[in-house]
Input
Amino acid sequence: MSFVFLSYSREDLASAKRVASLLARKRLDVFWDNHIRFGDDLKRVIVDRLESAGCVLVLWSKNSSTSHWVNYEAQTALERKTLVEARLDAAKPPPPFGVLNTANLQKWRGSAKGTEIQRLIESVSSRVNTKSLEGAFSLAAPLLRQQVTDSHLALVHTCWRTAQYDERFDGAETYRWDIALYGSKKALDRIHQVTYFLHPAYEIPDGDPPSYAVITLRARSNRKNCFRLRQIANGHSLVRAHVRVRGQTEPVKLSRYINLFNSTARIDEYLM
Output
Protein backbone atom coordinates (compact mmCIF):
# COMPACT_ATOMS: atom_id res chain seq x y z
CA MET A 1 0.00 0.00 0.00
CA SER A 2 1.12 3.57 -0.63
CA PHE A 3 0.61 5.57 2.55
CA VAL A 4 1.97 6.00 6.07
CA PHE A 5 -0.26 5.77 9.14
CA LEU A 6 0.98 8.16 11.85
CA SER A 7 0.20 7.02 15.41
CA TYR A 8 0.68 9.49 18.27
CA SER A 9 -0.86 10.97 21.41
CA ARG A 10 -2.91 14.17 21.09
CA GLU A 11 -0.63 15.74 23.70
CA ASP A 12 2.19 15.38 21.15
CA LEU A 13 0.27 17.07 18.34
CA ALA A 14 3.00 19.65 17.65
CA SER A 15 5.61 16.94 17.10
CA ALA A 16 3.19 14.88 15.01
CA LYS A 17 2.55 17.88 12.74
CA ARG A 18 6.30 18.35 12.21
CA VAL A 19 6.74 14.67 11.32
CA ALA A 20 3.72 14.65 8.98
CA SER A 21 4.89 17.82 7.26
CA LEU A 22 8.39 16.45 6.71
CA LEU A 23 7.11 13.15 5.30
CA ALA A 24 4.76 15.06 2.98
CA ARG A 25 7.67 17.15 1.72
CA LYS A 26 9.38 13.87 0.88
CA ARG A 27 6.32 13.02 -1.24
CA LEU A 28 5.02 10.35 1.09
CA ASP A 29 1.28 10.10 1.72
CA VAL A 30 0.51 10.39 5.43
CA PHE A 31 -2.73 9.53 7.21
CA TRP A 32 -3.32 10.71 10.78
CA ASP A 33 -6.44 11.24 12.84
CA ASN A 34 -6.26 15.01 12.47
CA HIS A 35 -7.66 14.46 8.96
CA ILE A 36 -10.69 12.33 9.85
CA ARG A 37 -13.86 14.15 8.85
CA PHE A 38 -16.46 15.22 11.36
CA GLY A 39 -19.30 12.71 11.28
CA ASP A 40 -17.10 9.79 10.21
CA ASP A 41 -17.03 6.62 12.30
CA LEU A 42 -13.69 7.17 14.07
CA LYS A 43 -13.05 3.53 14.97
CA ARG A 44 -14.03 2.20 11.55
CA VAL A 45 -11.81 4.70 9.71
CA ILE A 46 -8.80 3.99 11.93
CA VAL A 47 -9.16 0.21 11.65
CA ASP A 48 -9.55 0.46 7.87
CA ARG A 49 -6.47 2.67 7.49
CA LEU A 50 -4.39 0.51 9.83
CA GLU A 51 -5.12 -2.58 7.80
CA SER A 52 -4.29 -0.93 4.48
CA ALA A 53 -1.25 1.18 5.44
CA GLY A 54 2.13 0.25 4.05
CA CYS A 55 3.84 1.61 7.15
CA VAL A 56 2.65 2.55 10.66
CA LEU A 57 4.95 5.10 12.29
CA VAL A 58 4.43 5.22 16.06
CA LEU A 59 5.67 8.26 17.99
CA TRP A 60 6.38 7.04 21.52
CA SER A 61 6.39 9.41 24.50
CA LYS A 62 5.29 9.44 28.13
CA ASN A 63 1.84 10.36 26.77
CA SER A 64 1.52 7.80 23.98
CA SER A 65 2.94 4.97 26.11
CA THR A 66 -0.25 5.01 28.21
CA SER A 67 -2.64 5.63 25.29
CA HIS A 68 -4.94 2.68 24.57
CA TRP A 69 -5.34 3.81 20.96
CA VAL A 70 -1.59 4.13 20.30
CA ASN A 71 -0.90 0.74 21.90
CA TYR A 72 -3.66 -0.84 19.81
CA GLU A 73 -2.29 0.75 16.62
CA ALA A 74 1.27 -0.34 17.45
CA GLN A 75 0.14 -3.90 18.20
CA THR A 76 -1.75 -4.11 14.91
CA ALA A 77 1.29 -2.82 13.02
CA LEU A 78 3.58 -5.27 14.82
CA GLU A 79 1.36 -8.17 13.78
CA ARG A 80 1.20 -6.94 10.18
CA LYS A 81 4.96 -6.25 10.10
CA THR A 82 4.42 -2.60 9.14
CA LEU A 83 5.74 -1.05 12.39
CA VAL A 84 8.37 1.70 12.56
CA GLU A 85 9.00 3.38 15.92
CA ALA A 86 10.40 6.73 17.09
CA ARG A 87 10.86 8.16 20.59
CA LEU A 88 9.96 11.79 21.29
CA ASP A 89 11.24 11.81 24.89
CA ALA A 90 13.10 9.67 27.43
CA ALA A 91 10.08 7.51 28.34
CA LYS A 92 10.47 3.85 27.44
CA PRO A 93 7.80 2.33 25.13
CA PRO A 94 5.64 -0.28 26.86
CA PRO A 95 6.45 -3.97 26.26
CA PRO A 96 6.67 -5.53 23.74
CA PHE A 97 7.56 -2.33 21.90
CA GLY A 98 10.88 -0.53 21.74
CA VAL A 99 12.66 -3.84 21.11
CA LEU A 100 13.05 -3.04 17.42
CA ASN A 101 15.61 -0.44 16.38
CA THR A 102 13.87 2.81 17.35
CA ALA A 103 14.63 6.35 16.13
CA ASN A 104 15.56 8.86 18.82
CA LEU A 105 13.90 12.23 18.15
CA GLN A 106 14.32 13.70 21.64
CA LYS A 107 16.44 16.58 20.32
CA TRP A 108 14.72 16.89 16.95
CA ARG A 109 12.91 20.19 16.25
CA GLY A 110 11.58 19.70 12.73
CA SER A 111 14.63 20.01 10.48
CA ALA A 112 15.07 17.63 7.55
CA LYS A 113 18.78 17.50 8.35
CA GLY A 114 20.38 15.10 10.78
CA THR A 115 21.36 11.45 10.63
CA GLU A 116 18.56 10.18 12.88
CA ILE A 117 15.68 11.83 11.03
CA GLN A 118 17.15 10.86 7.66
CA ARG A 119 17.39 7.22 8.76
CA LEU A 120 13.78 7.39 9.95
CA ILE A 121 12.59 8.75 6.59
CA GLU A 122 14.50 6.03 4.74
CA SER A 123 13.00 3.36 7.01
CA VAL A 124 9.46 4.64 6.45
CA SER A 125 9.99 4.98 2.70
CA SER A 126 11.30 1.43 2.42
CA ARG A 127 8.10 0.08 4.02
CA VAL A 128 5.77 1.91 1.65
CA ASN A 129 5.06 0.35 -1.72
CA THR A 130 5.19 3.75 -3.37
CA LYS A 131 3.49 3.97 -6.68
CA SER A 132 3.97 7.63 -5.86
CA LEU A 133 5.37 10.38 -8.03
CA GLU A 134 8.91 9.11 -7.60
CA GLY A 135 8.18 5.37 -7.50
CA ALA A 136 5.98 5.47 -10.59
CA PHE A 137 8.95 6.14 -12.86
CA SER A 138 10.06 2.53 -12.56
CA LEU A 139 6.90 1.18 -14.21
CA ALA A 140 7.56 -1.15 -17.13
CA ALA A 141 5.97 -0.89 -20.57
CA PRO A 142 3.75 -3.83 -21.61
CA LEU A 143 5.23 -6.15 -24.20
CA LEU A 144 3.51 -6.87 -27.50
CA ARG A 145 0.25 -8.79 -26.84
CA GLN A 146 0.90 -8.66 -23.10
CA GLN A 147 -2.04 -7.63 -20.93
CA VAL A 148 -1.82 -4.22 -19.25
CA THR A 149 -1.88 -4.62 -15.44
CA ASP A 150 -1.23 -2.55 -12.33
CA SER A 151 2.47 -3.21 -12.84
CA HIS A 152 2.29 -0.94 -15.92
CA LEU A 153 0.04 1.84 -14.56
CA ALA A 154 -0.24 3.93 -11.41
CA LEU A 155 -2.31 6.81 -10.10
CA VAL A 156 -0.33 9.91 -9.09
CA HIS A 157 -1.56 13.13 -7.53
CA THR A 158 -0.47 16.57 -6.41
CA CYS A 159 -2.38 19.24 -4.49
CA TRP A 160 -2.14 22.72 -3.03
CA ARG A 161 -4.07 25.10 -0.81
CA THR A 162 -6.97 27.07 -2.32
CA ALA A 163 -8.10 29.42 0.43
CA GLN A 164 -10.65 31.08 -1.88
CA TYR A 165 -12.95 28.07 -1.40
CA ASP A 166 -12.78 27.95 2.42
CA GLU A 167 -16.08 29.79 2.89
CA ARG A 168 -17.94 27.19 0.82
CA PHE A 169 -16.82 24.57 3.35
CA ASP A 170 -17.78 26.63 6.40
CA GLY A 171 -14.29 28.00 6.82
CA ALA A 172 -12.48 24.64 6.64
CA GLU A 173 -9.13 24.58 4.83
CA THR A 174 -9.62 23.52 1.22
CA TYR A 175 -7.19 22.12 -1.33
CA ARG A 176 -7.32 21.58 -5.06
CA TRP A 177 -5.97 18.22 -6.13
CA ASP A 178 -5.11 16.73 -9.49
CA ILE A 179 -4.96 13.01 -10.14
CA ALA A 180 -3.85 11.28 -13.33
CA LEU A 181 -2.61 8.00 -14.75
CA TYR A 182 1.11 7.43 -15.03
CA GLY A 183 2.65 4.83 -17.28
CA SER A 184 4.52 4.30 -20.52
CA LYS A 185 3.11 5.60 -23.79
CA LYS A 186 2.48 2.01 -24.88
CA ALA A 187 0.31 1.38 -21.83
CA LEU A 188 -1.57 4.68 -21.93
CA ASP A 189 -2.33 4.42 -25.66
CA ARG A 190 -4.21 1.15 -25.08
CA ILE A 191 -6.66 2.70 -22.60
CA HIS A 192 -10.11 3.66 -23.89
CA GLN A 193 -11.84 4.69 -20.65
CA VAL A 194 -11.10 5.48 -17.00
CA THR A 195 -13.82 5.61 -14.33
CA TYR A 196 -12.95 7.31 -11.03
CA PHE A 197 -14.85 6.42 -7.86
CA LEU A 198 -14.72 9.14 -5.20
CA HIS A 199 -16.02 9.24 -1.64
CA PRO A 200 -19.81 8.53 -1.73
CA ALA A 201 -20.57 11.93 -0.21
CA TYR A 202 -18.19 13.79 -2.52
CA GLU A 203 -19.44 16.96 -4.12
CA ILE A 204 -17.55 19.87 -5.67
CA PRO A 205 -19.41 23.14 -5.12
CA ASP A 206 -17.67 25.05 -7.94
CA GLY A 207 -18.69 22.52 -10.59
CA ASP A 208 -21.39 23.28 -13.15
CA PRO A 209 -23.01 20.85 -12.76
CA PRO A 210 -21.34 19.63 -9.54
CA SER A 211 -19.14 16.53 -9.73
CA TYR A 212 -20.31 13.55 -7.70
CA ALA A 213 -19.00 10.13 -6.72
CA VAL A 214 -18.50 8.50 -10.16
CA ILE A 215 -16.68 10.25 -13.00
CA THR A 216 -15.89 8.61 -16.36
CA LEU A 217 -13.23 9.96 -18.73
CA ARG A 218 -12.92 8.63 -22.29
CA ALA A 219 -9.71 8.40 -24.29
CA ARG A 220 -10.84 10.59 -27.21
CA SER A 221 -10.80 13.76 -25.09
CA ASN A 222 -8.63 12.73 -22.13
CA ARG A 223 -5.70 10.62 -23.37
CA LYS A 224 -3.51 13.65 -24.04
CA ASN A 225 -3.70 14.78 -20.41
CA CYS A 226 -3.34 11.21 -19.04
CA PHE A 227 -6.97 11.06 -17.87
CA ARG A 228 -6.42 13.93 -15.49
CA LEU A 229 -9.12 14.71 -12.92
CA ARG A 230 -9.20 17.95 -10.91
CA GLN A 231 -11.24 18.50 -7.76
CA ILE A 232 -11.27 20.50 -4.55
CA ALA A 233 -11.62 18.97 -1.09
CA ASN A 234 -11.33 19.69 2.62
CA GLY A 235 -10.54 16.15 3.79
CA HIS A 236 -8.42 13.17 2.88
CA SER A 237 -10.08 10.36 0.94
CA LEU A 238 -9.45 7.26 -1.14
CA VAL A 239 -9.90 7.46 -4.92
CA ARG A 240 -10.36 4.25 -6.88
CA ALA A 241 -10.12 3.88 -10.65
CA HIS A 242 -11.27 1.20 -13.10
CA VAL A 243 -9.14 1.42 -16.23
CA ARG A 244 -10.63 -0.12 -19.35
CA VAL A 245 -8.01 -1.38 -21.81
CA ARG A 246 -8.74 -2.26 -25.42
CA GLY A 247 -8.90 -6.03 -25.91
CA GLN A 248 -9.18 -6.81 -22.19
CA THR A 249 -12.41 -7.90 -20.50
CA GLU A 250 -11.60 -6.98 -16.90
CA PRO A 251 -10.57 -3.44 -15.94
CA VAL A 252 -7.25 -2.65 -14.30
CA LYS A 253 -8.15 -1.62 -10.76
CA LEU A 254 -6.06 1.12 -9.12
CA SER A 255 -6.38 3.24 -6.00
CA ARG A 256 -4.75 6.34 -4.58
CA TYR A 257 -5.05 7.81 -1.10
CA ILE A 258 -5.48 11.56 -1.57
CA ASN A 259 -3.38 13.21 1.11
CA LEU A 260 -3.83 16.98 1.32
CA PHE A 261 -0.58 18.93 1.47
CA ASN A 262 1.14 21.65 -0.51
CA SER A 263 2.96 19.85 -3.30
CA THR A 264 6.35 21.05 -4.45
CA ALA A 265 5.36 20.08 -8.00
CA ARG A 266 2.33 20.05 -10.27
CA ILE A 267 0.90 17.00 -11.96
CA ASP A 268 2.02 18.25 -15.40
CA GLU A 269 5.64 17.53 -14.51
CA TYR A 270 4.90 13.80 -14.35
CA LEU A 271 2.66 13.36 -17.38
CA MET A 272 3.84 12.01 -20.73
Q: What stands out?
A: Residues 130-136 have pLDDT under 50 and may be disordered. Helices lie at 13-25, 42-52, 68-80, 115-127, 185-188, 219-222. The longest helix spans residues 13-25.
